[in-house]
Amino acid sequence: MLSTLIELQRLKRLDRTGWTLRGLANGTESVAAHSFGVSVTAMLLADRCTAAGVTVDLEKLLRIALLHDWAETRVGDMPRTATLYFGSDARKQAETAAFADIVNPVDANGSYANLYDDYERRKSLEARLVKAADVLDLLIQALALERAGARGLDEFWEVAEKPGFNLEGAAEQVVLELLQSILKARSELQPNV
Amino acid sequence: MLSTLIELQRLKRLDRTGWTLRGLANGTESVAAHSFGVSVTAMLLADRCTAAGVTVDLEKLLRIALLHDWAETRVGDMPRTATLYFGSDARKQAETAAFADIVNPVDANGSYANLYDDYERRKSLEARLVKAADVLDLLIQALALERAGARGLDEFWEVAEKPGFNLEGAAEQVVLELLQSILKARSELQPNV
Amino acid sequence: MLSTLIELQRLKRLDRTGWTLRGLANGTESVAAHSFGVSVTAMLLADRCTAAGVTVDLEKLLRIALLHDWAETRVGDMPRTATLYFGSDARKQAETAAFADIVNPVDANGSYANLYDDYERRKSLEARLVKAADVLDLLIQALALERAGARGLDEFWEVAEKPGFNLEGAAEQVVLELLQSILKARSELQPNV
Amino acid sequence: MLSTLIELQRLKRLDRTGWTLRGLANGTESVAAHSFGVSVTAMLLADRCTAAGVTVDLEKLLRIALLHDWAETRVGDMPRTATLYFGSDARKQAETAAFADIVNPVDANGSYANLYDDYERRKSLEARLVKAADVLDLLIQALALERAGARGLDEFWEVAEKPGFNLEGAAEQVVLELLQSILKARSELQPNV
Amino acid sequence: MLSTLIELQRLKRLDRTGWTLRGLANGTESVAAHSFGVSVTAMLLADRCTAAGVTVDLEKLLRIALLHDWAETRVGDMPRTATLYFGSDARKQAETAAFADIVNPVDANGSYANLYDDYERRKSLEARLVKAADVLDLLIQALALERAGARGLDEFWEVAEKPGFNLEGAAEQVVLELLQSILKARSELQPNV
Amino acid sequence: MLSTLIELQRLKRLDRTGWTLRGLANGTESVAAHSFGVSVTAMLLADRCTAAGVTVDLEKLLRIALLHDWAETRVGDMPRTATLYFGSDARKQAETAAFADIVNPVDANGSYANLYDDYERRKSLEARLVKAADVLDLLIQALALERAGARGLDEFWEVAEKPGFNLEGAAEQVVLELLQSILKARSELQPNV
User: Fold this and answer.
1) Residues D54-66: what's their mean pLDDT?
2) Is the pTM of this model over 0.90?
3) Which residues pair with E14 in a beta bridge?
4) Residue B18 and residue C10: Cα distance in Å, rounded?
5) pLDDT digits (tens, 9 = 90+) for E14-25
6) Which of the residues E12, E20, E143, E192 would you substitute to probe the A interface, choosing the one with the greatest number of A C-beta atoms within 10 Å?
7) Does C152 touch chain E (CB under 8 A)?
8) How far apart, in whole angstroms, are the C-alpha atoms of residue F98 and residue F11?
9) Complex-level ipTM
């Protein structure tokens, strides 16, 4: 178990390349910090879904949120453009193989691998909620950076136009509501004095 | 919900003061990254407990792990010595009040507050496992830093001598086993060439 | 003496949490760098007071300015909100106790402790001038950061509305004059091109 | 031309992931800084080759050294392990396509693309010398970091055992001589006092 | 050769003081990263000059670009104002002497020293093109930083008003064209939302 | 007064180049943080001198300590080697001129300039004590960094062999005592486990 945990420590220092490639300081956000943000966002979204009558398996949701970026210890935090050049199938295959090797010492019954596969294919509602949380945490981070003075992050906001969360009913409504409030908060940002 | 999530973004940048006070670089580990490490460690420990026949509520465990440090957005990451001067009761009260204010917009039924209270009092097995994961993630981070050349971190290792995890049976064994493997890995560190 | 000096080295790396909690980069300002700014600001203010006929004990003023944040090596740089949850009395007691332990090896006659107590109670004119310098250095740092592109720092400027420096006569005038020139410089900041 | 140059600015901030994944601070070495190191090392090696009677096209060599990592603005600095999971052919194809898109606005006659292709296939002596410089600059950086206290970098030194520079005659000798002096300097490092 | 290369590693970490003195984060741009930018800019400019019928010695140009800042390992990255106080002659003499000592182990025939002297006196067309690239890379970096939210960099743009590149004919046109496109891109920057 | 204070803010971010040139992380120590360390060290040394019967003008001492590095806002933190190439006279002249320009708006009667001149010539006991504190703070910082794992800092310790503090009697004894305790603490550092 220790070798897996030591390897995952690496995510605490690995920069999310989206920010540094746009000129923000090194250390703006680590992959581990992002995974934390995704997990928390997923939890709050799911609790609101539950309150709205949607059945969500919270344990499964949180497990997926926590492990969805583990492959980055071996593959790195590939910028969006990298996927264009490698193709998203190749990326999925590489990350799936990397994930399998990372969890190998602790995944006797293959349950982590199954959750990862679920996430990659967005099979379950839980997987789709985590993906939504992944996008929303990115936008909230972008908003927080813009509030602190950053700009030049417009590309990140394009995803908000056609999010493609592939959700329905109350779950979709909960997610879109948060998205709308993020967009509203952004529209209220004032130009620098 | 957005105001809570924006506030929690702050944990992504907040340094764990333990490292910077000992001369390591700013940005060594954020509170958010640590929370991720604790959550992952708790999940792996709990899965092993389950395999050993101990009943663990994984949903509850992961919720506690994710939220146990939220109060730091308002109280900061207080160094260990700060608790000595404030007293641990005052610290708990302050953090509990800060936590309540942070989750107020999303905690209609008080369930987050209850989980936090459980953690602070170490009432449930899940709370105690998260506390163990909190200590173990600290030690694994210290080990990773020492492998990268850091030293002067002996204080952190003192906790390993009398961990006081307050666990029993198979759960205790699972936790102590990980602790032992961390200590063994540390003992195998070679002096710098 | 060495143990005290080694402990104070820690302030050189400890981040002022006010900036990092608002999304600015780690390393924006250390507590030691702030103490330097406060000391220099206090010296310039006091020299202007002297020129205006106010008697200021410069030695006492500079000693207070240099030592007023030493307790942070043990208590950390608590964010403003932390004081709300702990109460300002508890904070003062904790910091006073921490300060006493830090200077213990070098303060045979209690003179450092007396200066710290003077500062905490704002007893002397010198203590009040240092407190004014503490606020003004914060505002000048905020101004410098805003000039470099930061925003989202409005909370810090609220203090400027009701500063409560508790000074009078020429001393008050000197301090308010600097405050006004800071506010004027801020009002002249242009929106980003 | 400006769009290409603006895109290449990104390499100035992009961390070499090899260091951060091993726990060294963000900002340890940027891709741009490494490219500078490779170019300089290649120049010094080539000048020594020339002095030893080997004909080297310096212009070609320096061009290759400067452009060999440009694809990383779009693909990122992939850790060594990433290549294992993607396969080195996929990686070469992706990087070649990214490179072509980056230089498209400035490469009317395809000469940059040809140089990149030469490098990727190690066709010319110049390409092989740049590859050798790429490895040697990595080792010199590792040595400099170890001199500054880093450790845990043993993986990087493994490459030194079977470098496979694919050079011959005087060129090989020049390169191996530098390699030997690096290894000798490393062997002389003392344990920390 | 190794001692020279180890010394030049220092440029990878040395901050360009122009940015940090204006409040941007440490690590914004290293001297090595800037040298990379200058070399690349010089190469693209020279290739366009060649296409326009100007004869440029690319090998010489790239050598000068790569070595023009080596003296900074010993003299540091002196801010512009430093030159005012030392006088530009004293600065040139100091840097020339430092450069000579740095390259001493690898410059048996004095060719590096000659190139440096050429650059310092702007004797050749190649030296003047590198100087132009030095200014243009600075402006492109400033533009990239402003796009990411920085401001307060107006001083750097003043140089653009009277660049004094001391070029003529097609070479001058190529350089001014890039300068114009930089200025145009800057004028299109929008105020922060 | 504001323009001077804004300019001095720059020292809060300006790296001491001694550390970064030796491969330590950016942000290891700012010039402002060092000035704080020198001021505090000078104060403690002077108080001990007073206790030993030596008359020290504390106000003067603290003023000199606070202002002794102000010229660096314009001249930068020149590495030790830079002085070799410029000559120490040229450096003093440049820094003196820079200092005069910085304080010009606040130094109607020339008293800051006089203190700076005193420091540069080491005329008074206070100036010599500040110089001793300047060296001792450097060594204590080096010691703290070595305790945290840094190495390769031997050059800095050479100064300890022939400090040349130019003090006498009890003042010399106080200073040498601190130096000895620093050297003793360093000799007790253990090799990394």
Assistant:
1) 98
2) yes
3) none
4) 11
5) 999 999 999 899
6) E192
7) no
8) 14
9) 0.96
